[in-house]
Amino acid sequence: MFDTIWTEITGFFTPERFRTLVVVIVVIVAGMAVIKILNTITGRVTRRYLSQQYKMLIRKGIRYTGSVILLFIVLHLLGVKITALLGAAGIVGIAVGFAAQTSMSNLISGLFMISEKPFEIGDVIQVGDTVGTVLSIDLLSVKIKTFDNKYIRIPNEKLLGSELTNITRFPIRRLDINLGVAYKTDINHLKSVLREIAAANPYCLDEPEPLIVFTNFGDSALEFLFGLWFYKTDYLNLKNSVMQEIKERFDREGIEIPFPHLSLYAGAVTDPMPIRIVNDPLSAREARVKTIRKKDVPDRRDRGGSTPPDSR
Amino acid sequence: MATKTRIAELWEPVSLKENVLYQADFSTLTVWLKRSGEDWYLASRRSDKETAPGPLREIKESRIPKDLSFSRWVVGGDLSTVQFIPAMPDRSIVVRPAAPLKVPANRDALFFTSIPVWVRVTAGSPEDITLCELPSLILSNTWFGEPTAGELCYALHTRAVRTLEETATHAYAAICPITVRNRAPKELNFERLCVRVEYLSVYQGPDRLWTNELDVRFQGEEQSSQITIGREAPGYAKQLSKVCGARQPAERTLLKQSFSVLRSLTGF
User: Fold this and answer.
1) pLDDT tens digits, one per residue of B17-29
2) Which of B140, B44, B63 is nearest to A210 (CA)?
3) Is the bond preceding A171 in cis, omega lying within 30 degrees of 0?
């Protein structure tokens, strides 16, 4: 049995075939080394001039193209007719193309997106409700890491068809705070207090100047927009500090932040439901007595002697 | 005379006794320091108001704030001397005069600006190990340039005084003499000037700290200004010694955008 197998193996590996096999192995090893060297040289040459995104694309292009060329060389060495293979590959390609329409769509969207360059690796983007830092931009999808450390893959087709916000594209941003103050507030005093808060906060940029806009006469408050410019990495520092400072300073200055009050009406022709705050101690005591008496009276359910829910 | 003494004492090296707590005050910054064996303990705190400079002195542990948190540095047993070194801030400073200044064409103007220094805490003398750098005064951030591409700087509001007598004497602020030369065909409406402090050294005089002289040649709004940095200590005081080198290698001449007119960037 073993003799037969051994005879077949030794019969297969004729000196000519053995030579071809050695040549193929040498070609594969040398080809892979060449691809790696090319990638390293290209990486070094383009390090200063190209963005990470383009560098990654070039690296992948070299690797895939080099691998295909290497494959054709190896097939040629093994005696496979490449012309016939290419013809077959064309037919197979059409079939695969039909089967992989989504992937092709993603691929083409990826190419469009790479040429348009709406963001780069390291940018913080928002797509729909998802916000995160771009980890990689590939031909089929973009991978992002959310701030709570989740890994999200967004297909390029979806990215191209939806609204995308690049939050960190520009170095400075504006934090908009909507404020409501009581109608009795002196507006000039409020504006000077807000300017002082902005000036005292080191994370708030001195220039561009903070924006203070009287936006609306609200239902229960005068509404203002307080816009503070900041360097893009200071978002949390500014938001945490300035919100606290606004509250503390408003408390000190006696500026009231009102909350909505709701009045109930029984109907159009009637007066609003009368509400009276009673400070009279006697009335308060009477009210307490009434409450105690009400507690002493057994509940209707107890008086009726109905079965407790637990015993059912 | 008292100020002179304080300035000299504030920046002088001090040998630390073991297991003794020390305190030093710089403007709004207070620093506590203790050496214990090979380890040094450092804490700092800020106050809202500027205080008089206080050189490093021994203090009882019962007199320090209870919630103070110390950072620990493994310095080694061979070093026992601490020195505070006045350094320039780590970013450029946008100087904004209290009122816009106008310099007519082909005229020069000399201003003196006080720049709050950063306190570099070093173990050993001259500086062996830098432990940390702390700003003597926290300056607000500001943006110099377009919102899409510019430079993050510190903001400094100044009176832009024209004579040395008008400058306030602070132990923790360095005087920077700036000569603005308007070489543009029209007047220079100077509302902000970006001072590249990273190229400036700090010099100590008998009563003040100084930086190199700056010579800024304005050549028009669309063109970069030519900034020349004085190689030596400024000539306005005698007996100046260099106490801190520039953060960036000193270049004789720089071509940078230095002036900026106020633009409305607050479009709603």
Assistant:
1) 999 999 999 888 9
2) B140
3) no
Give me the residues paired with residue A214 across strands.
A224
Residues of chain B neighbouring A202 (CB-CB closer than 8 A): 138-141
A193, A138: one domain: no
In Å, how far is B20's CA from the nearest CA of chain A?
A: 34
- The pLDDT value recorded for residue B132 is 92
Contacts of A225 in chain B (CB under 8 A): 268
- Tell whether the model's pLDDT for residue A308 goes beyond 60: no
Query: Distance of CA A172 to CAs A56, A133, A175, A242, B265, Å?
Result: 28, 17, 10, 17, 12
Chain B residues with beta carbon closer than 8 angstroms to that of A206: 94, 96, 140-142, 155
pLDDT 10s digits, B187-214: 888 788 888 898 899 999 888 899 999 8
Total domains, chain A: 3
What the block records as the tokens of A280 is: 């009279």
Among candidates A207, A211, A227 on the partner chain, residue whose Cβ is nearest the Cβ of B142: A207
Structure tokens at B208: 């003040």
CA B261/CA B188 separation, integer angstroms: 10
Domain presence at residue A45 = yes
Q: Which domain holds residue A52?
A: 2-99
Tell me the pLDDT band of A250, cut-offs 50, 70 and 90.
Answer: very high
> Using the beta-carbon criterion (under 8 Å), do B141 and A205 form an inter-chain contact?
yes
| Of the partner residues B140, B147, B268, the one whose CB lies closest to the CB of residue A206 | B140
**CATH code, A154:** 2.30.30.60
Sequence spans of domains, chain B: 2-85, 87-117+137-260
Of the candidates A93, A31, A38, A30, which has an alpha carbon nearest to the alpha carbon of residue A60? A38
0.80 surpassed by pTM: no
